[in-house]
Amino acid sequence: xxxxxxxxxxxxxxxxxxxxxxxxxxxxxxxxxxxxxxxxxxxxxxxxxxxxxxxxxxxxxxxxxxxxxxxxxxxxxxxxxxxxxxxxxxxxx
Length: 93
Prior knowledge:
With 93 residues, this protein is mostly helical. Helices cover 65% and strands 0% of the residues. It has one domain.
């Protein structure tokens, strides 16, 4: 960051920020492109009986931290995971 501050004026930096707002580039744009392709692939191959279509947003990763779980919710989630695992294990025998 220090090198950027030495080599780029605040005006030029502001112009780049404005440009990025109008014409996004970088990882966010790449995620959108991949989301579009994933939604297209999903929709082409989905069961014809299903009416729900996937949207690009369904495939774009979100990096927000999840809300903290209460102790009771965490225990319920763990119980559900172990129950599902036990049911799958029984089917393999």
